[in-house]
Automatic annotation (TrEMBL):
Residues 85-186 form the FAD-binding FR-type domain. GO terms for molecular function: oxidoreductase activity. The keyword Oxidoreductase applies. CDD domains: cyt_b5_reduct_like. It comes from the Eukaryota. Keywords: FAD, Flavoprotein, Oxidoreductase. It holds the Pfam family Oxidored-like. It comes from Schizaphis graminum. Gene3D superfamilies: Nucleotide-binding domain of ferredoxin-NADP reductase (FNR) module, Translation factors. Belongs to the flavoprotein pyridine nucleotide cytochrome reductase family. PROSITE patterns: FAD_FR (PS51384). This is NADH-cytochrome b5 reductase-like. PANTHER family: NADH-CYTOCHROME B5 REDUCTASE, NADH-CYTOCHROME B5 REDUCTASE-LIKE. The keyword Flavoprotein applies.
Length: 335
């Protein structure tokens, strides 16, 4: 805290004495990118974690010094509103039911702020409630200029976190820390994604952001497993993505009891298969990727992730080209 205050005072004094012009790029750091906050001793659990909160602090300080030297990534990136070492307040803007047990929550910085949060798609944040219950979530969409993000939350019977969150209403406040994890996907000809249930959240934003780039020629292939057609999350968005030349979406329904009736509800050009993502399906998917530099991404529950990972390895896919987005992927910085 002393570093943060002294830094701001130093910049303000330079401005007052006209040694720093009002248009100087360093001024944005007074508000938008102050030095990372040092964790308190109580923030360390004392369990000898592989990456202690103080290790995170040291890394964030090194990144901050680098941004200070190089000019950072732009005026709209609000690093002051999100920290990997300290929880920041966010309010619930809206909550919408997407399925019987899944809701979409929109959180925004409080007080209201303009700009973009320093989160990359496939990264996750930790959301903490007032009673210190905390869970990691991967933002599915990011607000372009209102410092907000959306997450999909699945309610589990007897779940302490989701039960408490369901009792909260619009304008109630949580705290958020992050971002963490993330995947580097530059340099690949193709990205094949396997999603299970709410795990699709890790991919929807990634696909959308890549398709928004007119210069992107990376082939995008999403294989999404759900129990029923009614349980397919963000179906409209996925159908829109599938209309692009370089994107294909394949849905797998594992527990649809009346297939003949269900098939009447298929949309035009939807690619839907009855049953799980089988070994034969994975073999065919791999065969389609011959001679392509392919990144394989997986996000679902532990059983789903392990099944797909083992299947890919058994078909001689290099482990270095497989990433399981289970909220423990190696941390990297937004660029």
């Amino acid at each position: 805290m002393i570093i943060r205050i002294s830094w701001r005072i130093h910049c303000l004094r330079l401005l007052e004495t006209r040694h720093l012009s009002s248009t100087h790029p360093l001024l944005r750091y007074i508000m938008y990118d102050p030095p990372p906050e040092r964790p308190s001793e109580s923030d360390c659990c004392g369990n000898g974690c592989a990456e202690c909160v103080f290790d995170v602090y040291d890394r964030e300080c090194a990144r901050w010094r680098h941004r200070l030297r190089t000019g950072g990534e732009g005026d709209r990136l609000r690093r002051d509103l999100l920290s990997a070492t300290k929880h920041k307040p966010y309010r619930i803007v809206s909550t919408v039911a997407l399925a019987d047990d899944v809701r979409a929550y929109t959180f925004a910085a409080t007080p209201t702020a303009n700009g973009r949060l320093p989160i990359a798609y496939t990264q996750h944040v930790h959301i903490r409630l007032t009673d210190s219950l905390s869970r990691p979530y991967t933002p599915v969409t990011l607000g372009d200029d209102d410092c907000s993000f959306d997450v999909l939350v699945k309610a589990y019977p007897g779940g302490r976190f989701t039960g408490r969150l369901s009792e909260m209403t619009v304008d109630d406040v949580v705290t958020v820390r992050g971002p963490f994890g993330g995947v580097r996907y530059d340099g690949y000809d193709s990205i094949v994604m396997f999603g299970g249930g709410t795990g699709v959240a890790a991919f929807v934003g990634l696909i959308g952001s890549m398709l928004d780039d007119d210069k992107c020629e990376t082939l995008l292939r999403l294989h999404y497993s759900c129990k029923t057609l009614d349980g397919v999350l963000m179906r409209k968005e996925l159908a829109g993505y599938a209309a692009y030349w370089n994107c294909a979406v394949h849905l797998y329904l594992t527990r649809e009891h009346d297939w003949s009736q269900c098939s009447k509800s298929f949309w035009y050009n939807e690619n839907i298969t009855e049953g799980r993502i089988s070994q034969d399906c994975i073999a065919k998917i791999i065969d389609e990727q011959q001679n392509l530099r392919t990144l394989w991404l997986i996000c679902g529950n532990d059983e789903f992730n392990q099944y797909v990972f083992n299947s890919l390895v058994n078909y001689n896919i290099k482990r270095d080209n497989i990433q399981s987005l289970n909220n423990t992927t190696k941390d990297f910085e937004v660029s």
